[in-house]
Amino acid sequence: MKRRVRMGMVGGGRGAFIGAVHRMAARLDDKIDLVCGVFSSNTEKSSETGRELFLPKERVYGSYEEMFRHEASLPIGERMDFVSIVTPNFMHYPVAAAALDAGFHVVCDKPMTMTLEEAKRLQQRVRETRLLFCLTHNYTGYPMVKEARDLVKSGRIGIVRRVVVEYPQGWMALPLEAGGQKQADWRTDPARAGASFTMGDIGSHCANLAEYITELKIEEVCADLTSFVPGRALDDDGSVLIRFNKGAKGILWASGIAVGEENGLNIRIYGEKGTIEWHQMEPNTLIVRWLDKPFQVLRTATDFTGKASLAATRLPSGHPEGFIEAFANIYRSFAETLDRKLEGDQAAAGDFPGVDEGVRGMAFIEAVVESSQAGSKWVKTG
Amino acid sequence: MKRRVRMGMVGGGRGAFIGAVHRMAARLDDKIDLVCGVFSSNTEKSSETGRELFLPKERVYGSYEEMFRHEASLPIGERMDFVSIVTPNFMHYPVAAAALDAGFHVVCDKPMTMTLEEAKRLQQRVRETRLLFCLTHNYTGYPMVKEARDLVKSGRIGIVRRVVVEYPQGWMALPLEAGGQKQADWRTDPARAGASFTMGDIGSHCANLAEYITELKIEEVCADLTSFVPGRALDDDGSVLIRFNKGAKGILWASGIAVGEENGLNIRIYGEKGTIEWHQMEPNTLIVRWLDKPFQVLRTATDFTGKASLAATRLPSGHPEGFIEAFANIYRSFAETLDRKLEGDQAAAGDFPGVDEGVRGMAFIEAVVESSQAGSKWVKTG
Amino acid sequence: MKRRVRMGMVGGGRGAFIGAVHRMAARLDDKIDLVCGVFSSNTEKSSETGRELFLPKERVYGSYEEMFRHEASLPIGERMDFVSIVTPNFMHYPVAAAALDAGFHVVCDKPMTMTLEEAKRLQQRVRETRLLFCLTHNYTGYPMVKEARDLVKSGRIGIVRRVVVEYPQGWMALPLEAGGQKQADWRTDPARAGASFTMGDIGSHCANLAEYITELKIEEVCADLTSFVPGRALDDDGSVLIRFNKGAKGILWASGIAVGEENGLNIRIYGEKGTIEWHQMEPNTLIVRWLDKPFQVLRTATDFTGKASLAATRLPSGHPEGFIEAFANIYRSFAETLDRKLEGDQAAAGDFPGVDEGVRGMAFIEAVVESSQAGSKWVKTG
Amino acid sequence: MKRRVRMGMVGGGRGAFIGAVHRMAARLDDKIDLVCGVFSSNTEKSSETGRELFLPKERVYGSYEEMFRHEASLPIGERMDFVSIVTPNFMHYPVAAAALDAGFHVVCDKPMTMTLEEAKRLQQRVRETRLLFCLTHNYTGYPMVKEARDLVKSGRIGIVRRVVVEYPQGWMALPLEAGGQKQADWRTDPARAGASFTMGDIGSHCANLAEYITELKIEEVCADLTSFVPGRALDDDGSVLIRFNKGAKGILWASGIAVGEENGLNIRIYGEKGTIEWHQMEPNTLIVRWLDKPFQVLRTATDFTGKASLAATRLPSGHPEGFIEAFANIYRSFAETLDRKLEGDQAAAGDFPGVDEGVRGMAFIEAVVESSQAGSKWVKTG
């Protein structure tokens, strides 16, 4: 790369966890410059964030419409190349659509939209504009997730029979939204979060991760969503039986009320000849069990893992890399792809999730909600 | 106890894993003498096992009918006090029923019978005879399972919201039965194993364990049983969504095709204020996560666990006790209860599973099979 | 075996932890009958223990001298074949010597004697009488310790360069002996425990374990013993730098004041091509790290371990075996060896530590004490 | 901060692991701009690195002397504020001394110098100039190291009795230097690495970590350094018995030949009332064992840790932070302190190791080497 690519941001003001993560991830590999933003719908808060980020005053905007209009008027090489959308869910679609319309490439947080119908419209728009679209299913950025995907693809664990993927969190075990906690507030509001809290916020990561590693497709779901905390408008726990194509079966569990669990995403994939196990909280380790030899513990950045995994690390083995580094892998791949595209390579593609994964995610969420509301498969014991 | 109680055994000849376990468990605490047995339907094999056990020739019998008849004719203090039934599933009911008819107390392996209907008949018979009946859901014998139960009962983790219980094994990932492997052979034969392999063999342990610890009752199930290995007559993998009474939800997964998994029974119980986690393969540890304090690791035989747990250990902390010791706890409690009963205490009761748990187990299995065959809750994605 | 071998016991009355362990270990495999004992120097306590063990009154003796005399007068096939000595350290030598003089085979707890000089006299006596002598360095009975030994012997990890062996315990962090706690009382009394608490009680296990697995010999030590608890007459913590033969180096640490540690014996062995790691508290797992391939986790009773390890298990993989089972492996090997000897095979030998290991252990302890007291740096062992 | 502070760099060209780490660490929190450098003694390599870092050509220099001279001539606000020294050991002293002479603040990698004598001269120079000096004992940047320090300081684990600190690595188990591997080459050359490989490269981290957490001082060492790989000019393994002030005892082990170990720094600290355990490879977890309650697992960014630890994290709990983030904590504290200093606060001080720690580290190394070579047992440090 001859120069860094230029990023604008929508969302991510003070108190917004995910915006800061996007910025650190974009910064880590020195390939991206943050050049402008609208960090909050509150102009004062937005300006304050801009100052903290050492941005010139004139490039902190009052609205995303203004930002897109003004940036589009700047010369290439100065204006932003892409926008990163880190707002609550309900703003993803309008901002992303407007960015595409204004000719900007897009990085967007998940879930991609509020509905499957919106998702399909966005997919259509991305295809028409041929702009880059990256959906930050960030967990696919972990080296050992890539290693797992390579292991499945190599056939070494045989045909996949069963997947168990879980995402337990405990932070929503109390009615935080009643006390106005910002993160909990919008996530439990159907108007801002969508049809399901657990499936939109974390279940969609599970579904994406299972499909990313196995390259199978979820075909049918049988689900049970529950709202445990009294007064909560959306579910805070959900379990799903899954049927993938090619006969594989799955269990998916996502929960916000799993007391004491932190960010416990984990996945196990059982093939005919081997089993893979990965835990997000110990991300540099991949456990592999075999039918015909002792079980192994693969570790990042050793001599014993594949190219994709190795390329996704920055340090020698035993020097732990974590959440930010994995997130940065998404941004790095996006930046390099964008650079090639800006240099004229129209077919440039990278290893990051896109609009198609976003459509699959919304289809998954809607099917889970529908199944959970149906009742006829339950059988009484005794 | 003034003397050891006397045990006869049906089943458990050479190559039968579980019979030897029952004998070691019965032997460990020095409260039980094995005095007679019919160890195999093959008379020669039965005699050979008898010799290896240093039993007098005349108390190794050719059939259980003969054993019950002859032992009943011996004077009290010489004849067996109870029979331990360690045969394949299809023989549990006839042998147990005959033992009760002959006036003998019973220890029986699980699942209790082949059908719910048989189970109810056996329950009726136990109630009428007032003889002791112990069903070896042996995992309830582990100290940390008792600790978990006490924790729930104490209210310290609050009302239970969610249970996740798993029992992955990998030994049935290949069609062993086709090669005549004895353990696999009968377990995959509906005529000897019953309506489900996974639910009868290991799923029933999961259901029992969840109910034992939480004191909740499984009310409804929504299940998906699969037979992955070609040509196998019974399922070898099953996942179940559960609705307990009092609004709790559960996931149960039992599998024989989980390559590389050994005997991976584990359970997590999420309450309003705390979470409990236990793994059978590291049985002396109980992880407890709290809403309002750092997570704790409880260890057996320390100063920091309850009476029930402590009474179920034999060694100081850090000296690992395992499967045999937990199994022995069932036998020890049974022996002590039987001793009190023989001394005239008709109300004697111990901490071991009985005929009611057996009925619940069979009801669970039949509901799972029925739900798995129904189809209407599945929703296609997209 | 045609009959069980017969055991007498000295020590192991109520409140004596290790006596009960020896009995369970002897009982587990059904090859040994306890036929007599003197369980305490207090006759009443001894009788009470005898009753609890369902022993005939006339075979619970008032002294070991009486027991040896009377048992020797009984006919073979009735009298005890061997004695198990489970007293505090200072009684090991006199009882063992008397047993040998009376013609009885011996199982003796460690450390073998109070001094190196006693140890050498006992060694001489064993050689002269040609009776079996087993020293219960019980940790060598664990399957994965045997697996580790086989791995080293096979050359697969290359020449051993470094050993780190630790035995942290926390139970002596407070002055329990001041409160009269029985186990702490004699262990901190030089007259009953010997020259060092940590080295005699647990350090000798470390030294033995390191030598057993590596087949190296400790040649020199450089030690630092500390008595942290005020008023304690013996050390309660000790660290030792070791020089083995063949150029290997070692660190040994044993402590009674390591708060919160339970029975944390563990060992790591670093060879030129591989590394072995084992923890007593998770005994069924052996971690092996390789120079040229991913690290492996070997598990007991799988298809992937050697014969010695497999022969030391009783259950399929994933069914945890623990401390009692490992201890029972020592007793089982002793019983089988004794049976062969009683049947006339004078050369019968088993896989259990003997009098030579006892001499090495006492030499180690004395060298550590000398080094700790001296200014000169390295002290030769033995 | 109103503006970012400006960094120059000496060392850290292609293939130099640690330079890239320093840059990522400096970049992560957006408080530091890299403005100039001399990345290699080879001018072409240096320029190439400068281009990759998007630096203007005129600020990539041919030598550190030139860089200091030219930068000093630039106006404040444009010239570099501090230099980061990431060369092999033998260049630390001359570059640092020259930087101080030219009026620049310094960040320097460890070990600080080649000899204790150099270290003391540098200490003198820092005191005279009153410039900021930061020594990157980066492991002190981990949140759970700060938590451990706070726990000790609070008195909750009581007076510290014993420390065990280890730093096993396996990457030097083969004679890599013979093949010209760059990292191994200079580290095994006394002229560029100093008197000890293991103590300089990793042992000094151990000593610093132990002193940082406990606030004890190492007073005496008794050491054994070994060179296992044939032909190697420096040791590749070393074990040290330690006597701290206040009666605490320690074991320190550092090794490059521990096959299969990655970057296994770990420490255990045993107090009268509690024990702390931390592993660099699972850095977000702190195990705490107690005399009077169950053992706890503290986790970063939960509600249950202290302020210093919390301030050292950027993400919610369960989102793993690693080596770069810990390193960045050192840089962030340095940048904030430097900013205060530049704003006129002459007394500004931060939570990062400095020149005094560097002197202690060199004293430790020299004492270890002396003890290892000597016959006398204990050698005083410093």
Order of helices and strands of chain A: EHEHHEHEHEHEHHHEEEEEEEHHHE
Determine the most extensive contact between two protein chains. Answer: A-B, 61 and 61 residues
CATH architecture of the largest domain in chain A: 2-Layer Sandwich
The quaternary structure here is homotetramer
What can you tell me about this protein's structure?
The structure is a homotetramer of 382-residue chains. With 382 residues, chain A is an alpha/beta fold. Helix content of chain A is 36%, strand content 21%. The first copy, chain A, is built from twelve helices and 14 strands. Chain A has helices at residues 17-28, 43-52, 64-73, 92-101, 116-129, 143-153, 182-187, 190-193, 197-214, 307-311, 323-342, 355-373; strands spanning 5-10, 32-38, 82-85, 105-108, 133-135, 160-168, 218-226, 237-244, 249-255, 266-271, 274-279, 285-290, 295-299, 379-380. In chain A, α1 (17-28) crosses α11, α4 (92-101) runs parallel beside α5 (116-129) and α6 packs across α9 (197-214). The longest helix of chain A has 20 residues, at 323-342. Chain A is globular, with a radius of gyration of 21 Å. Chain A starts with a strand and ends with a strand. Chains A and B meet through β6, β7, β8, β9 and β12 of A and β6, β7, β8, β9 and β12 of B. β13 (295-299) of chain B pairs antiparallel with β13 (295-299) of chain D, so a sheet runs across the interface.
